[in-house]
Write the C-alpha cells for this entry.
Amino acid sequence: MRKVAKCLLILLFFVFALAGAQPAAAASYPKSMAALGDSISRAADACCWYGDHPAQSWSTGAGAYDGIQSHYEQLLSLKPAIKGNNFNDAKSGAKAGDLPSQVETAASQGAEYVSILVGANDVCTSSASTMTPVADFTAYIDQSLARLHQMSPRPRVFVSSIPDIYQLWNVLHTNSVAQWVWSSANICQSMLSASITEEQRQLVVQREEAFNVALEETCAKYAQICRWDKRAVYDYSFSASDVSLLDYFHPSLKGQATLAGITWRASYWGS
C-alpha cells in the first residue's frame, strides 16, 4: 500500500507540475506584435503585381493559401488572443534613420512583440560613396532599441540580420532580364550595377558586414528585450526562386516563406 501511495503522490506531482506549466507557457506569448523596417517586411513585389503585399509579410502577414507561415500566424496558433493585433509599421524605402519613428508607432500600439529587419536600403544606394555611415546606422539602431527598452511593459524584440546583397548579385548577375531591370529601375546600383568593379562591390560587402555587427552588438546591449538571429538570414544562400520576378530584388512568395521559416526558428519560440 505504501508503494502504491508513493506512486500516486509522484503521479499527482507531475500532473500538477504540468498543469501549472501550461498557463505560464501560454502567458509568455504576446497578444500583439509589430513589424518594423523596410520593403522586405512589407512584402514588396512578392507576387503578381508591383507594390506592397503586407498580407504576405514574413513577420505580420495573415494571407491565406500563400505558403507563408508568418510569425503572426505561428503565434496565432499558440495565442489566439493576438488575433487582429498584427501591425505592419515597416515602410518601403525605409533606412535605419526611419526606425525611431516606426518604434514610436509600435509603442503607441502597445506591441508586445516587435520584429526588426532594416539595413538593405542603407547599403543599396546609388553608389558605395552614398551608403549610410556605420556610426549613423549604429546610432539609429541604439536609439530605437533604447526606446523599446523604456516601454512598459517591455516588448520582446527580434532583430534580423540583413540578407546578403552580394549573394543576390552572384545568383542573378548572369540573367540578362535581371540586369535590365536593375539598370532600368536603378535598383541597388552600389552592388548591382554592371559597370562597377569587384573592388567596389566588396566595399558594399564590408559595409553590410559592419551593419550586421552593429545590429548584433546593439541587440546584445539590450539583451533584456532583444534577440538576435545570429546571422541566420545573412548566412542563408538563397536561390533565384526566392527572388521576385517583378524586380529581381525583393523576396518572392517562396522567399517570404523561406524568410519566415529561418527567422521563426531563430526567434523566441522557434525550435
Q: What stands out?
A: Residues 2-27 form the longest helix (26 residues). The radius of gyration is 21 Å. The mean pLDDT is 92.
